[in-house]
Amino acid sequence: MNTLLVPTDFSPAAENATAYAAQLAKQLEASVLLLHVYQLPVPMTDYPVMMVTADDLRKTSDSGLQRALEEAKKNWSDVAIEMESRLGDVATEIEEVSKERKPFAVVVGMKDVKGFERFLFGDTTMSLIKHCSYPVIAVPENTQANVPANIMLATDLLNAADIPAEEISAIANVLGANLHVVHVESKESTAVQEELMNAFASTKASYHPIKDDNVTDALKQYVEQNQIDLVLVLPHRHNLYERLFFKGHTQGILHAMPVPVMSLRND
Q1: pLDDT tens, 42-54?
Q2: Are 183 and 235 members of one domain?
Q3: DSSP three-state, residue 59
């Protein structure tokens, strides 16, 4: 059975990600695994402080997971839901569990964190997207949980031959969704799209070139005007996604999109 892995910190964003995963699980006939990763606190002072033990943290983790599991089963009684807690680094443990369970995707809640707070405390979602070897779906905290009917693939066509069309088509087909292949450029495109679209012949795909100087705004506008439910991006070297996400783009697609963003590694 397919699995949707949901890392949780028991926050509202994680609860929303669980709801989204449960919706997908019904469509995919998959199970949901709730994972909580806890860490031993590191004292930041020279003064004596009361330290908790790993056993105390495990009990707290399991207690929180049990509450989350019961709530999820109450809302999604027809979905198989499991739980697991682990001690360690969040990103590392998620990767380890992913290698063991080989999930359809890691579904992570994305909090509405402002720029300075994101800089100060880091961004677990961004770290997962950049390093996780399995697909990651980042679900905005206030997004309503719906099975995608329209998926947008954002591409710059610089590495069109490397786009995993078969995998993308399989995702769109299993979800019963339309695929919108969207290309944003600041000037007229001379790229050839026919070969790429032929690769999507087995799915309901359409090509949409957009001329705009602001890629993020253009993509967001397309999402809002075309009832897009899921944005799909490909984090590999030199493509649109890496330039926007990892090269300091002012707004950043991940935090600008009003819908979930799914990343597919294409190394």
Answers
A1: 655 555 555 677 7
A2: yes
A3: helix
Same domain, 50 and 129: yes
Do the beta carbons of residue 87 and residue 39 sit within 8 Å? Answer: yes
3-class DSSP state for residue 66? helix
What is the dihedral sign for C-alpha 233, 264, 27, 253? negative
11 phi and psi angles, rounded to 5 deg:
-85, 165
Q: How much is the pTM?
A: 0.86
- The domain boundary, picked from 140, 158, 174, lies at 140
Pairing of strands 230-233, 205-211: unpaired
Whole-number pLDDT of residue 256? 85
Cα 222 from chain centroid?
Answer: 19
Spell out a b/e string for 165-188, using b for 16 or more CB atoms within 10 Å of the CB, else e: beebbebbeebebbbbbbbbbeee
Within this chain, do residues 155 and 78 fall inside the same structural domain, yes or no?
no
If asked whether residues 181 and 120 sit together in one domain, one would say no
**72 contacts 34 by C-beta, under 8 angstroms:** yes
The list of the chain residues with pLDDT below 70 reads: 1, 41-51, 113-123, 158-159, 186-192, 236-252, 266-267
**CATH of residue 59:** 3.40.50.620
**Long-range Cβ pairs for the range 125-129 (8 Å, 24+):** 125/254, 126/245, 126/254, 127/91, 128/7, 128/91, 128/94, 129/235, 129/245, 129/254, 129/263
Q: Which domain holds residue 159?
A: 150-263
Check whether residue 16 and residue 93 sit in a common domain: yes
